[in-house]
């Protein structure tokens, strides 16, 4: 599997800008159609297990990378269930510092039941990474609620000269991931938003509505900062390999997921928007079904306008977006689907019965639509 572009094969290369869990069922289902999917994952999360790792080691967030790799792991791989359970396990929230270290030590020693259950060679590889992390573990780190998979990825990042992409590749190979997972940048940056009421919020965990109170004013601006204590904007740039991967895709997809923190955040680093505009493939947006706390007060039209703005394509919308894939029922979307407005901007609406049980999408139906848009062999190309 090339680290620069997709496979050179008849299977289409579909690239997703999303690191959230909402895409996981679709990502898993798509592996039945193509293993050429590329998942560009944000590294800006400031909550959960990633928060303590970022505080102690000044590193990018790895939680979304871990989750997507595990979602793509080959379920037929011997030891798949066991390695997935190990990497998804979190240390207790209510244990003492001594108890937490003791449990981590048992994982490193391979005597913990979860480690013992993993067959070779997965077991040795997992234990090695946890051992590396333990050797670097400072006394000041709080292990309460720590994700074992995140600790293993952090160890790889620190062991590989603080580079996250090669670690994602190694872990993907370890679990035979059926797709390519790429962190959008290697930089240690944080998300900031400005609300319509003028309030500025620093830190993804403060505005997603998951760990803090949901926002009550619409988000109007999104940018990156270097610290949770400083809202000043910074610029970070993607690597040339990712630019080429975006430009060479057969379909670019802005999928369901937390609209700002998971999808639009991928467009913030320098180089992403230009790569999108110069890619010759179709581009499709799949809006959420009205259950995203980040979209308070925003309609589908607002979302598309924001996407075009961030992609630098307000004057030439077709360079950033060609299709909007939606369910047949407009009532599922805030403000409905603005077909006339989209048509004026050269954006076509594709309708299908996408919802299997509100608010859940039919992953297989979505995948079939994406394959059609990507020009799957044997089907009619859509451009």
Which helices and strands, and how do they pair?
Elements: E1 14-17, H1 24-30, E2 38-41, H2 48-57, H3 63-72, H4 80-88, H5 97-109, H6 113-117, H7 122-136, H8 148-159, H9 165-174, E3 180-183, E4 190-195, E5 200-202, E6 219-227, E7 230-233, H10 240-248, E8 251-254, H11 259-263, H12 272-278, E9 283-285, H13 300-310, E10 323-327, H14 339-344, E11 348-352, E12 355-357, E13 360-361, H15 363-373
Parallel strand pairs: 1-2, 1-8, 2-3, 8-9, 9-10, 10-11
Antiparallel strand pairs: 4-5, 4-6, 6-7, 12-13
Side by side, the strands of the main sheet go 3-2-1-8-9-10-11
Query: Which fold does the CATH topology of the largest domain refer to?
Result: Rossmann fold
Number of domains: 2
| N- and C-termini, Cα separation | 28 Å
Question: Could you explain the architecture of this structure?
Answer:
The chain has 383 residues and is an alpha/beta fold. It has two domains: 242 residues, Rossmann fold (3-Layer(aba) Sandwich), CATH 3.40.50.10680; 105 residues, no CATH class. It is 37% helix and 15% strand. The chain is built from 15 helices and 13 strands. A hairpin with a 2-residue loop joins strand 12 and strand 13.
């Amino acid at each position: 599997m090339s680290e620069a572009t997709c496979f050179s094969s008849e299977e289409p290369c579909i690239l997703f800008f999303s690191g959230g869990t909402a895409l996981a069922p679709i990502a898993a289902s798509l592996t039945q159609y193509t293993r050429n999917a590329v998942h560009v994952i944000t590294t800006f999360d400031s909550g959960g297990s990633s928060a303590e790792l970022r505080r102690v080691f000044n590193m990018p967030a790895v939680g979304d990378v871990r989750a997507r790799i595990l979602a793509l792991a080959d379920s037929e791989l011997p030891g798949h269930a066991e390695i997935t359970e190990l990497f998804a396990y979190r240390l207790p929230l209510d244990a003492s510092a001594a108890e937490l270290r003791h449990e981590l030590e048992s994982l490193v020693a391979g005597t913990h039941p979860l480690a013992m259950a993993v067959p070779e060679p997965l077991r040795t590889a997992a234990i090695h990474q946890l051992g590396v992390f333990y050797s670097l573990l400072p006394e000041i780190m709080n292990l309460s609620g720590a994700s074992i998979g995140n600790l293993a990825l952090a160890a790889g990042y620190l062991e590989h000269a603080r580079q996250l992409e090669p670690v994602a590749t190694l872990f993907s190979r370890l679990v035979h991931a059926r797709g390519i997972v790429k962190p959008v940048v290697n930089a240690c940056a944080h998300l900031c938003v400005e609300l319509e009421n003028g309030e500025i919020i620093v830190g993804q965990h403060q505005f997603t509505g998951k760990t803090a109170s949901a926002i009550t004013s619409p988000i109007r601006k999104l940018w990156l900062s270097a610290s949770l204590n400083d809202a000043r904007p910074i610029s970070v740039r993607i690597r040339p390999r990712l630019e080429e991967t975006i430009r060479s895709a057969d379909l670019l997809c802005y999928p369901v997921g937390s609209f700002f923190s998971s999808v639009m955040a991928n467009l913030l680093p320098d180089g992403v928007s230009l790569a999108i505009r110069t890619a010759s493939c179709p581009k499709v947006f799949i809006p959420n079904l009205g259950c995203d706390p980040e979209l308070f007060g925003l309609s589908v039209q607002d979302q598309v306008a924001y996407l075009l703005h961030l992609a630098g394509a307000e004057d030439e919308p077709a360079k950033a977006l060609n299709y909007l894939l939606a369910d047949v029922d407009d009532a599922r979307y805030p403000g409905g689907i603005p077909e006339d407005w989209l048509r004026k901007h050269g954006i076509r609406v594709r309708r299908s019965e996408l919802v299997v049980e509100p608010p859940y999408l039919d992953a297989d139906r979505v995948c079939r639509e994406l394959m059609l848009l990507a020009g799957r062999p044997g089907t009619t190309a859509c451009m």
